[in-house]
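Researcher: Next sequence.
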Amino acid sequence: MNPECPACPGFTFLPGNVLSKSNTLQRLFSRHVRPDERSILRLTEFIAVSFQLAYTWLYLQGSELCWPFAIAGSVLFAWVCLKKDIPAESLLYLFYIAMGVYGWVHTGGEWLETTWPLYKHSALLVLSVLVWFAMACYLRKKLRSAKPLADAFTTVFSVGATVLMVNAVHFNWFWWMIIDSVAIYLYFSRKLYLGSLLFLIYAVMAIDGFFKIGWFT
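Model: Next structure:
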């Protein structure tokens, strides 16, 4: 029953359909997983992992079709991570959505590997560590993340690794090796087993990229 205005009997503040939509949105973005949502969550995780793998394969093939999969997979993972109480990871996927749009618009160009001087690497590392600890404290106190340290680590250092990537710095692969290893633990601890497997694949790819072994190229 809709709430009525005390001064105007019979007048409701909100129509029933508006209340229904509001409740649906609250359930959708709530971090509480209801029993009837668990199967939906598992299916969404499966689709998100499939999209991310499709993105990776198409990217390695040099196809522009990789970007829609990257964006769609990130949208789905953002919701899954929110439901699994790792909100910083969810925020990271919003960043990936923006990067996917950017990549789609600016497709093309030649990858010319560069190097950074030590002071640039040091500055990025120190800044990332400071932001990591600050975010971890915020996640623990304000957002009640299930895994604040790991949640903040993967988010902050992934942004740092992306900075290295867009500048074509080869050392970005070393960052991804560490990040993906932490992500394996983070996703596995939140029972996102397919997501954990995805990051295991990414960790192997990062090792391949850093040492230039050629497993994936």
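Model: The radius of gyration is 21 Å. The first helix runs from residue 16 to 29.
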